[in-house]
Amino acid sequence: MGRSLCCDKLGIKKGPWTPEEDIVLVSYVQKHGPGNWRSVPANTGLMRCSKSCRLRWTNYLRPGIKRGNFTPHEEGLIVHLQSMLGNKWAAIASYLPQRTDNDIKNYWNTHLKKKIGKNQAEDVCHELVSRYCNTDQIGNPDVSTLPASNLSSTTYASSAENISRLLVGWTRSSGNQVKVDQGSCRSVFNQEFTTCTLPLKEPTSFALQESSSEAPFPFHDDENLRLETEHQPLTVLENWLLDEAVGQVDIATGLCLDGMY
DNA sequence: AACTTGCGCAACCGCCAGTCG
DNA sequence: GCGACTGGCGGTTGCGCAAGT
Among A99, A150, A200, A240, which one is least packed by beta carbons within 10 Å? Predict the structure, then answer.
């Protein structure tokens, strides 16, 4: 038998936190700062284990937490990061500082996983990665171009560093190009054109720059893009745009504009 | 109105890694 | 080096509520 868990101790309360308990915990943390959770139950009289106190603080009471609906931008970012990092919710959360890893995990499990099939999500996100990230000299995405903000805390900073290391392994292979025309798109795989129609209901709602027939993709003929040749990536993109009800997408960056236009 | 079903989310569980004596 | 302890993380559970019948 392993050692007993703290929450197995007699008298330890489980279940939802009451407002009174929240007040006690917040008051204590405001006075002493987060950390040393072991001492929290002992010094506050809370009949909760230290782990429960820490979780309650980090997932619910911590200042700056944004609750409520996820924006299309956040949604896209989660999908994108999940495809690169897998279920590393803490790492993903480091790029959405106002969201907790628990929130992101819940949102993924209850919304995004259903919306986007596994393979589809992967492909969509490869598309998004191409647009979110600048690349370094050898084609690796530059994580610094991701909208990671407010990385000043040590936890978030170290997570961001971990992501940077993970991203090093993500490289682009050569030989594929993609071009987009307004209302339709075509992809080129190893010199072979495959065309898939993009039946935009309202093409003008997308932020096509200028009046050029070619959207300003962030990569050009002389750049390389990793795409699985057995897929129709832009068909996936099409589904993304139509099914996810993303109102406006900047084709150049892949960013959901979320009412910016 | 009563009951059932499905969903969202807060909280718990178990494992792991780091630290300390 | 070793074991105890703590904090962090990802997976899972179960309660409460809304929607459907």
Answer: A150
Strand C within 7 A of A164 CB: no
pTM (predicted TM-score): 0.54
Residue ranges and CATH numbers for the domains of chain A are 19-60 (1.10.10), 72-167 (1.10.10), 176-243 (no CATH)
Strand partners, A197: A184
Average pLDDT (A199-213) is 26
Rounded Cα–Cα distance for residues A12 and A67 (Å) = 28
Closest CA to A14 of A2, A27, A23, A5: A5
C1'-nearest nucleotide to the CA of A70: B8
Which positions in strand C are less than 7 Å from the protein's CB atoms?
4-12, 15-16
pLDDT average, residue stretch A232-241: 34
| Per-residue flag: A18 CB under 7 A of strand C | no
- Cβ contact A43 with chain C strand, < 7 A: no
